[in-house]
Sigma-70 family RNA polymerase sigma factor
Amino acid sequence: MTMDNFLLEQFEANRARLTSVARRILGSRGEAEDAVQDLWLRLNRVDNARIENIGGWLTTVVGRLCLDALRARRARQEDSIERLEAESGGAGPVFAATGADPADEIAMADSVGLAMQAVLERLVPAERVAFVLHDLFAVPFEDIARIIGRSQEATRQLASRARRRVQGARADGGVDRARRREIVDAFLAASRGGDFAALLTLLDPEVVLTADPEAVRLGGQARARGAPRVAQLFSGKAQAARPAMVDGAVDIAVAPGGRLLLVLRLEMADGRIAAIHAVAEPAALLACDVVLLDDQPGAR
């Protein structure tokens, strides 16, 4: 067997695991596949004699590629937030469709859960890489430290901090029902009134909005991140939305004429909305216990 054939065989043997690692870190099937493809190109350029452990080398390099992708994504988001803050006088649709693949959102929700996915989106890149590689794929801290360019102790601390945030993720974020209702009423009032500043105070700075495929079909956006972006999407909208008890928690429902079309499942942290999950798939709605509540359009 030639060395080229050996490398190809080893790469293919590890491809599924590498793709899984990249998808968990990046949260995107397309970006994960791009990272693995880039990994293959790099493997073909490296001095084969220098690779002692092909599996470890592949994991290390794909981790670095994902870290670079997360940092680039964060920089783009910060640029986008600055532009949105400057343009906040306009109002777009509540769920403006984008090119994001909704299948990615469902696959990630199935694999890590909505709550964990939302928390992962709020972690800084190094935290996210350290947590995913160590806690989900059992990569030693010694290897992770080389990937993120930190000491082993600093890497342990990053993973520990991320783990606490993931384990502490709760749908209500410790907010009692009365306070949760106040936040929901204020969010609906600010949305309907186009009060962008009020929306920003109600949303966690790193809030994540996701939508299932049916919500996207109805005109939704598969994913948005950051308070300015999410506030822009809701400002001046939500006219048909109402507060509702959804599986025992105060959330938001859209049910014109009493026909349930969509629910917004909310996650809260420190008295703010940290994640919004738009659910419109008929099977998912049937599985929800939804009770519409009296609306308070003037609430603040």
Notes: The two ends are 72 Å apart (CA to CA).
